[in-house]
Amino acid sequence: MNEIEKQKEQEHLDNVLKEIDGQIDNKNKQIEDLENEMAELNHHFSDQYYFLDDEETVVGGNELDEQETLINQTKEQYYKLKKQRLSPYFGKISFKEETDSGAKDYYIGIFNLTNGTDVPVVCDWRAPISTMFYDYEIGKASYRAPIGLISGDITSKRQFKIKDSKMEWCFDSSLTIDDDILQKELSQNSSQKMKNIVSTIQREQNSIIRDESNILFVQGVAGSGKTSIALHRVAYLLYKYRDKYKSSDILIISPNSIFSEYISNVLPSLGEENIVNISFMDIAKNELSTLTNQLETREQALEDLTTNTKRLNEVAYKNCFEFADSLKQYLNAYVDFSFNPKDFVFGDLKIKKEEIEKLYSQKYKDKTPAVRISWIADYILDKIDVQDDKGEVYARIKKVIYPMFISQSLTEIYADFLANIGLTFSYTNQNKVRYEDIAPILYIKNYLLGLSKLSKVKYLVIDEMQDYNPLQFEMFDEIFACPKTMLGDMSQCIEKLLDENDLDRIAKIVEAKEIITLNKTYRSTCEITHFADSIKGIHSQTVDRHGEEPQVFTFDNIENECKKIVSLVNENASKFDNIAIICKNKKEAEKYYSYLYELDDLKLMDDGSLLSKIMIMPASICKGLEFDMVILPNVSTQNYNNFLDKNLLYVSSTRALHKLYLTSVSDVSKFIKNINTNK
Fold first, then answer.
1. Angle between the 435-448 and 321-337 helix axes, to the nearest 10 degrees?
2. What is the β-pairing status of strands 104-109 and 91-97?
3. Counting runs of H as helices and runs of E as strands, what totals does the chain give?
4. Alpha-carbon distance 673 to 679, whole Å?
5. Is residue 288 domain-shared with residue 345, that is, in the same domain?
6. Sign of the dihedral defined by the CA atoms of residues 262, 266, 269, 275, in that order
7. What is the pLDDT of residues 519-561, one digit of tens each?
8. Same-domain check for residues 512 and 373
9. How many domains does the chain have?
10. Confidence band for 241, pLDDT divided at 50, 70 and 90
11. Terminus-to-terminus CA distance in the chain, angstroms?
12. Domain edge (last residue) among 86, 106, 123
């Protein structure tokens, strides 16, 4: 791009800023006028209050409510314009429709901006025409508008970096997203909040964001942008289907509260309200209310699993399809042998136990036992001539029918099932239900009694789907009867729940028509990605962004190891916005925290913490997060030696954007390959 073109773009930016300033002034004036009108209405209403009849009072109240709503809407538009002024757009395409004589310029930004002309000043990144910016190079292109397919040619394509209303750079781009521009964005420091990626969305990511499938099932490698894709997809759905969805209709199931806090900035930065986040444990506590304080969390379980090999093997089995199939077979038999029908007598009415058995095992067999019994009671009520007080009669019927089902507690049923397959039900040392037992118990409840349907949820997003087992997927499908986007990476499955060979079966459970794969990582440098891949024996495609090779340092004692960690942090603290020291488990994080007293700004993280500049944390809570620099202490053979350790090491390594260091007091783990050791 020559200087004349750059000057033209600067002049265009100046004109856009002038347009925005004019609209800001107009909105400000509207707000002032509306608030004055509101004050007059309040004054009039208060003066006349004692003279108004009931109808006039209601009308007056409604008028005040409408005025307040209008003020809030106008203020929202005002703040949106103020935000837009900081960075009005990030891209531009010149597009010539087949029927036009010349090309028109379309500037692409986070928000739409109009001035009453046929061509918008700025197009929202979610608008149909904007998809060409992400999907096409210069040449033939098309997009699907409400009136149909629009075809033509992209004659030029340009990208911008506008910050605080100043143009930092602009480039001509012939590619989807120019590598130089992508490199600029990826090389930036991370932050305590995830950023939106609207200016660098890649073609494969854009395809998923705009996908029209009811069930979207995505397998993506670490750093492929899965979470960002999910959040941008939510923003896209709220834009395109604004008459169908509002923010309160959408739910995200997140791994933990730190992750929820980390992603909380994305949707607001895209002009949408934040979405409600819950975890699997929130669902479990709601459904198993009598056990609320007796449920082990996943983080607590992982802490124990890092040292309890016997439990680790049992967890792996309880999360496989074989275990799920065995439980289903047991419950199929249970609903039959647990029902003991008897003759029913009510006044002159007598119903033989054989008829009740037939209703239970044949007519209503597709229902849960609780529903079957309820329907049997309905069936009997219809046969009784009741003139009044049907409720009392119905209650008497159910009082007789319900005991025919041999009732046991959910934990008793589960314990019996485990005994049948040669296992023993046991609580943790803190007398809590083990995390790996929560899903089976919930499944039993759903099978026998049914779970609460969250019908208010119209769209569900499940992130980190590799952390869930077949029983959980079936319950998600049962609880949330709505469209879904599910994303994860089977390589990051820590407890050996599932692997890529199980993807087809999981997709079948949730009725996904296809599995979309993302093989390219954008988070880490090539060197860090190749190192992390070597741990798992996988191969990820990378962006050509290079940096230092990961380094491992070995020491004779923990004191010297920690001195090196302090030195590494101090050397890099001024360069990076955040540094994470990721330990194998919570116990180890606490131990190293006590040794790293020289780091004044160091914060010990747990599930309920907020991210800080320098932090130390267990690997169990780092999932989905990213940091400029990562240090992994105690990567010894003794500390990282089984499949869970390997998975923890891989997940922790993939959190690093720019630098990765590993330290050990003895020989390094067998999982660390092709890396120079510094003594």
1. 40
2. antiparallel
3. 23, 23
4. 16
5. no
6. negative
7. 999 999 999 999 999 999 899 999 889 999 999 999 999 999 9
8. no
9. 5
10. very high
11. 50
12. 86
